Amino acid sequence: MSFDIYGWIPSLEVAEYFRQNRVFTVTEKYQLIHDASRSLEEKLKALLELEAEASEEQEKEFMSRAIEVYRLALRLMKEQPSGSFFLVKTFSDTDELVGAIPYATFTQVLKQAANDKTASSYLAELWQETTNGGLTNPIEYHLLPLNGQLKSTDFWIDDDMMPFNPLSETGDIYAPNTHDLFDSKLYLRCLLPFENGDLVCLEVDGVSRHGFFYQELDGNGTLYAYLGYLHDGYLDTLELGENSVMTLNWTRLNAFHGELPPEEGILREIGDLMKRLEQQDPLSVEKLFFDTLFNPISRLEGEARLSPYHVTSLTLAELLKEAHCVEYQKHLESH
């Protein structure tokens, strides 16, 4: 019996859609497991089950390397190299850095962070002394509260800074090459079962937001999904790229459609406009989202943010006018 990867997709609607329409390969299943918001211990257990499905030599080698790296990451939590410590950075629900505190052991990290009620996520950086008295940062752990407990859900290893296993006293035990394991090359090349303009609720790192939905596949097959929402009365957006989009909790809010507070009606208006444009000219939806609602200057600087329009007192027509969207006004009038 094959490993049930669909149970690792938190959105029931998304999971059921792919259960009926998509059979994932071993490496695709690995990618979904790796990106999921679950503990490293749970992920390693799943990878050990998935390893039995690997039939081709390349798949077997890939899974063997992945499991070895996961085991190494888990061991480093408990068996730290001498002269090492953890620098823990705390982040708010808006991803703002709110503090950084050093701890001697990972156990102290979990104990102290569990009592912190102001942060929504944590980054625990392992720092280790080098032979010449310097410091290296070979591994980092992403921590999230799961079922009332703080757990490490993801990690990053620096290949250049950690070419060998730091647990080895002789220095001759080499860590597996992680180049292809964690660099998002395993594109799933598939869209979520939502329409552009749908109202959805999205949960990221325990924070729920609702707004209008947009998605696209780039030339490499990478899925990018966006949520346009209101933040402190301003129109804002979340850009979610690569395969992690699949392992987030999405819920379609059609039933919630008529229950939006009056000040959030602009979200429904924009979503409805996107749906109308999709039927007439799909390319115009992309232009609306990126050329009108997005700030082109911010996008060139690599910032994923919608133009900060204060929309509580604006109608959709006023918003488009404020965005200098004369062509869209003409488009709406002609259709």
Structure description:
- By secondary structure, this protein is an alpha+beta fold.
- It has helices at 12-21, 26-35, 40-51, 57-78, 106-114, 265-280, 282-293, 296-300, 316-322, 326-334; strands at residues 84-91, 97-103, 121-129, 135-146, 149-157, 199-204, 207-217, 223-231, 234-241, 249-252.
- The protein is 33% helix and 25% strand.
- The strands form 2 sheets. The protein has a 5-stranded antiparallel beta sheet. Strands 9-8-7-6-10 form a 5-stranded antiparallel beta sheet.
- The chain is globular and about 70 Å long.
- Mean pLDDT is 77; it is low at 161-179 and 296-306.
Explain briefly what this protein structure is.
With 335 residues, the chain is an alpha+beta fold. The radius of gyration is 23 Å and the shape is globular. α3 runs antiparallel to α4 (57-78).
Work out the oligomeric state of the chains in this entry.
single chain
End-to-end gap = 53 Å
Which descriptor suits the 3D outline? globular
- Unreliable stretches, pLDDT < 50, 5 or more residues? 161-179, 296-306
Going by helix content, strand content and strand pairing, the class is: alpha+beta
